[in-house]
Amino acid sequence: MLRIHFTGVDLARVRMAGRPDALWETILSFHRLRDRRDARLFGEWRTETRSRLNSETRTLGMLIPSRGYFPDFLTPVEGQYGWDVGLDALRGIRPERMRRELQLLGAGAPMTPRLREFMDDGGKQLPRLMGELRAYHRAAVEPYWTHIQAQIEAERAARGRALLDGGADELLSSLPPMLRWRAPVLECDYPVDRDVRLRGRGLLLQPSFFCRRTAVTLHDPELPPVLVYPAAAQLASAPAGGESARPVEEQRQRTLGKLVGHTRSVVLRAIGDGATTSELARRAGVSLASASQHACVMREAGLVTTLRRGNAVLHTVTPLGAALLKGGAVAS
Fold first, then answer.
1. Tens of pLDDT, residues 194-211
2. Could you report the per-residue pLDDT of 80-134, keeping only the tens digit for each?
3. Residue 11 contacts residue 169 (beta carbons within 8 Å)
4. CB–CB of 11/201 below 8 Å?
5. Could you tell me the strand order of the sheet in which 312-317 lies?
6. 222: which DSSP letter?
7. How far is CA 312 from CA 143, 177, 288, in A?
8. Element (DSSP H or E) covering residue 16
9. Which of 83, 128, 223, 291 could form a disulfide with 281 if both were Cys (CB 3.0 to 4.6 A apart)?
10. Which DSSP symbol is given to 13?
C-alpha cells in the first residue's frame, strides 16, 4: 500500500500535468512490451513495435526490470516539459546520483557484471543508454504520440471538471479506483508498503497511457513529488500507428465525409474544452439524441474522445479535431 499524506498547503498545490510525459511513457511502455497481459489494448502495438525494433535494448532491459524498482534518473522531473528537455536532464545526471540509484537497483540480489560495470564507469556508458532510449522511443512511442495526447487530454478534461465542481477534494476523489482519497491521505494499491509525506510541496498528477493497474511514484522522497497513474480513457481505445494504422485512417477518411455540414461544425466547436452530451446539446442548440449521434460520428472519425465520468460522459476534442477546426475544413 502507498499512502500519500497531504497538508492543507499540499491540497492547494495539487496540479495536473499539462501534457503526457514522453520519458515516463517510454519507460512504462517498455514494461508493457514484455507483459503479455492486456492483449486487446496492447497486442497490436506490441507486434508493430517489435517489428520496428532493430536496435539494441540490453541496457534498457538491465535498468528497467519487468517489475519493481527502476532508477529515478530515467524519468527526470524536467520530462514534463518535453522529450528533448527530459533527455537533456538525463544527459546531465550526476555520477554520484546514478551510482546511488544503481546500487538500489542491484540490492537484494548479486549484482551482475554488466550492471556493476555500468555503475563503476562514472557515466561513460550513458551515451549508449541515451542511444537505446532514443531508438526505442522512435519505435514504441513516437508513432502513437497523437493518440496518447488525445487520451491524456480527455483525462485532463475529466479531472479538470472535478476540480471545478468540488476543488482538490473532488479531484482526488475522482481518480481511478486503485486510488482512494481518505482525507488527508491518498491511498494506492502498491507492491510495497510505503508512506510519502508531501510537506507542503504539493503533488503533480501525471496521467499516463502506458501505466497499468497501479500508480507509480519516485523512490527518492526528496525529489519533487509526482504520481503517475493510469489514464481512464485508455480503456476505451488502443493506439494506432505504423503500417497497420492504414485501415484505421481509411475508415476515418470515410467517416470524415459525414462531417461536412454546418451542424457538425457547430457541434465540434461547441465541445470546447470538454462537454457532457447534455451540455453539448444546449450549446449547439440541438436535441440530446442529435448531440449524442453527432458525437458518435466524430468519435468514429477520430475527432473526439469520450470518457465516462459517473453517470455522464465527457467529450473532448482530439488533436486531429483541433487541427480540423483550425483549418476550417469542417464548416460548409
1. 999 999 999 999 999 999
2. 888 999 999 999 999 889 989 998 887 766 778 888 888 887 667 888 899 999 9
3. yes
4. no
5. 275-276, 312-317, 304-309
6. T
7. 32, 17, 13
8. strand 14-16
9. 291
10. T
Q: How far apart are CA 134 and CA 151, in angstroms?
A: 23
Query: How many whole angstroms separate alpha carbon 311 and alpha carbon 323?
Result: 30
Scanning the structure block, which residue is given the C-alpha cell 542491484?
Answer: 106
Q: What DSSP assignment string belongs to 54-103?
A: -S--HHHHHHS-SSS---GGGS-GGGGG-HHHHHHHHHT--HHHHHHHHH
What single-letter DSSP state applies at residue 319?
H
DSSP 118-187: HHHTTTTTHHHHHHHHHHHHHHHTGGGHHHHHHHHHHHHHHHHHHHHHHHHHHHHHTS-TTEEEETTEEE
In b/e form, how buried is each residue of 92-108, taking b as 16+ CB within 10 angstroms? ebeeeebeebbeebeee
Report the alpha-carbon distance of residue 57 to residue 30 in Å, rounded. 10
Rounded mean pLDDT of the chain?
A: 84
For residues 94 and 89, give the distance between their C-alpha atoms in angstroms, rounded to a whole number: 10
Mean pLDDT, range 285-299, rounded to an integer: 86
Q: Is 141 exposed, middle or buried (0-12, 13-18, 19+ CB in 10 A)?
A: buried
Say how far apart CA 235 and CA 249 lie, in whole Å: 20
Q: What angle do CA 158, 265, 280 make, to 5 degrees?
A: 35
Q: How many residues does the chain have?
A: 332
Sorted by sequence, the CB contacts under 8 Å of residue 27 that are 6+ apart come out as 64, 70, 74, 75
- CA 87 remoteness from chain centre: 18
Q: What is the rounded distance in angstroms from the CA atom of residue 17 to the CA atom of residue 24?
A: 12
**Coil, strand or helix: which one is 323?**
helix
- How far CA 268 is from CA of 15, 85, 127, 248, 312, in Å, comes to 28, 33, 46, 21, 18
Pull the grid cell for residue 249. Answer: 485512417
The cell for 137 is: 522511443
The pTM for the full model equals 0.75
